[in-house]
Specification:
This protein is an all-alpha fold. Helices cover 66% and strands 0% of the residues. The chain starts with a helix and ends with a helix.
Length: 58
C-alpha cells in the first residue's frame, strides 16, 4: 500500500512541481487509500447482506 501512495505522490509532484500547494496533494491520497478498506468488506458478506435490505427499504 505504501508503494502505491509513494507512486501517487511522485506522480502528483511531477504534475504539480510547486510543492507549496501541499493542500492539493493531501486530499488526493486519502481517496485512493479508501478503496483498500472497501475490498476488505466483501469477505464480510454478513454486512453486505444487511446493507442490501436497507437499500431496498429506502
Amino acid at each position: 500500500m505504501a508503494t502505491q501512495i509513494d507512486a501517487i505522490f511522485k506522480k502528483l509532484e511531477a504534475l504539480t512541481p510547486p510543492i507549496t500547494s501541499t493542500d492539493d496533494p493531501s486530499p488526493s491520497p486519502p481517496p485512493r487509500i479508501t478503496p483498500p478498506p472497501l475490498a476488505a468488506v466483501p469477505p464480510r458478506s454478513h454486512r453486505m447482506k444487511l446493507d442490501v435490505p436497507r437499500f431496498n427499504g429506502d
